[in-house]
Design brief:
CATH class of the largest domain: Alpha Beta
Radius of gyration: 23 Å
Oligomer: single chain
CATH superfamily of the largest domain: DD-peptidase/beta-lactamase superfamily
Distance between the termini: 36 Å
Shape: elongated
CATH architecture of the largest domain: 3-Layer(aba) Sandwich
Order of helices and strands: HEEHHEEHEEHEHEEHHHHHEEEH
Strand order of the largest sheet: 4-3-12-11-10
Number of domains: 2
CATH topology of the largest domain: Beta-lactamase
Structural class: alpha+beta
Number of helices: 12
Number of strands: 12
Length: 471
């Protein structure tokens, strides 16, 4: 696969219709043959890991095709300060749209120049609100900051010291797939043969996580599996790979039973069914598989609003911080990690609360200014480790949770890259957009008490599109 090329972003005249949309994706990149950069790199490496290469979602034939190459989302960095007239134009353009009744009784906004951090439009930007899934931006920034984009999550098999048992130990990778289990089984079978071991017992260890494994939204929810460090394909039992889907009531046990089947297929004798148990302290590793790099996991989380990976990222942050690996410990770790980033908005974390990593919990609280501060920091050349936060954002009209939003001829199509957030009565949108004069702008619009989902989403999309059309 050809190496991704990057050009300096240049401003150009707007062209209506599909020609604008196709060209716009090139400006808002980085793309290469339809794949995001980190996931393309995973495919190129193609090593034996538990985390599979995650393809882009199927594109609606009626949608414009992505451009074959990409320009950097950071092409405008280093631009001069924003002229005062620019802020006035942005305020004049957004203010009437921000007053739309569809946005409900509570609404906040923050729009800043991503290069300079200068505010262009603000309304209650410091007020902490329920962010829904836009909180995943904070989760992703914290995880990348704590662990780096190359970190991989392990799943390990250990052998007991007396050679009579093996333990499948979960490390927190929700993307482990059957191919990863098969590779683990092959390595385990080889190690047992080398040791001359006879039939062995099989247990599985989920003690890495503590506290409740059921999210406050409740059990058997199609949006999220039980939060456990061991599962296969996010505990899905219906073959889906993203979005809502039927989940197993016992994802860890299912993973262990699938592993047992792989071992038996390789001729390994097992003395009984798998059981849940903590690995002995003197057990030695005999096999290991790794997830895709954290950069790819972050991109998948943001593009598809993947709740299971988001919760895993929050817990990986807790592990790195030495906190309890639970909802509470992960929330503290995310908060503390963000506090250490020297965010451009000094008081951005005021009132912030991270009750979970996914945004499904209505007790989450973030402000619009925190979200734009995080996006601005991700665009900072001094923090290249955070770049997957920008490259993972869905592209309006093209990918992920924005693939079916924005008409082909809308000004924001292909230019807006944003994380969506949706709960009953809560609609949010936060991301970046390249304006007509070639500036990279970070924005966050949070609305609460919205009377209906679709009109609220349309109102948010109109705000982002208006930004794209403003120069």
């Amino acid at each position: 696969m050809p190496k991704l090329k990057t050009w300096q972003l240049t401003a150009g005249s707007a062209v209506a219709g599909l020609a604008l949309a196709a060209g716009a994706v090139a400006v808002s990149g980085p793309w290469d043959s339809g794949q995001r950069k980190a996931e393309r790199d995973v495919a190129a490496a193609h090593d034996r890991t538990g985390g599979a290469h995650h393809e882009m979602p199927s594109r609606n034939p009626a949608e414009p095709a992505p451009a074959p190459s990409a320009r950097s989302v950071l092409g405008t960095l280093g631009a001069p300060a924003v002229p005062p007239s620019k802020a006035d134009r942005v305020k004049g353009a957004l203010a009437p749209l921000f007053d739309a009744a569809a946005l409900g009784r509570l609404r906040t906004a923050s729009v800043v120049d991503a290069t300079t951090g200068e505010p262009l439009f603000t309304r209650g930007e410091r007020d902490a609100m329920t962010p829904a899934s836009t909180v995943k931006i904070a989760t992703a920034v914290a995880a990348l900051s704590a662990l780096g984009p190359d970190h991989r999550i392990p799943t390990t098999v250990l052998a007991t010291a007396d050679g009579t048992g093996v333990v499948l130990k979960g490390g927190g990778d929700p993307t482990l797939e059957k191919e990863g289990l098969r590779a683990l089984a092959a390595d385990t079978a080889r190690a047992l043969r080398d040791k001359g071991a006879g039939p062995v017992s099989l247990s599985y260890d989920t003690t890495l996580y503590t506290g409740p494994d059921i999210h406050p939204i409740g059990r058997n929810n199609e949006n999220l599996a039980r939060v456990t460090p061991l599962m296969v394909n996010e505990g899905r039992i219906d073959g889906t790979r993203s979005g809502i889907g039927d989940r197993s009531p016992d994802p860890a046990g299912d993973a262990a039973r699938a592993f047992a089947a792989e071992l038996r297929a390789l001729g390994v004798g097992l003395t009984g069914d798998p059981s849940s148990a903590k690995a002995p302290a003197d057990a030695e590793p005999v096999a290991k598989t790794l997830s895709a790099p954290l950069s790819a996991l972050v991109e998948r989380t943001l593009t598809h609003s993947d709740n299971d990976i988001a919760e895993a990222l929050a817990r990986q942050t807790a592990i790195a911080a030495g906190e309890e690996v639970s909802f509470a410990g992960a929330g503290k770790a995310v908060h503390d990690r963000l506090a250490g980033l020297d965010l451009p908005a000094a008081d951005a974390l005021t009132g912030a609360r991270f009750a979970d990593g996914s945004g499904l919990d209505r007790n989450d609280r973030v402000s619009a200014s925190l979200l734009t501060a995080l996006l601005t920091r991700a665009a900072d050349p001094a923090h290249p480790e955070l770049r997957p936060v920008l490259t993972g954002l869905p592209v309006a009209g093209f990918s992920g949770t924005l693939s079916t939003r924005y008409a082909a001829d809308a000004p924001g199509t292909g230019l807006v890259r944003a994380k969506t957030g949706t709960l009953n009565g809560i609609n949010t949108l936060a991301g970046t957009v390249v304006t007509q004069d070639g500036r990279l702008v970070a924005f966050a619009f949070l609305a609460g008490g919205t009377p209906a989902r679709d009109p609220a989403q349309d109102a948010l999309d109109a705000l982002a599109s208006k930004l794209a059309a403003t120069g």
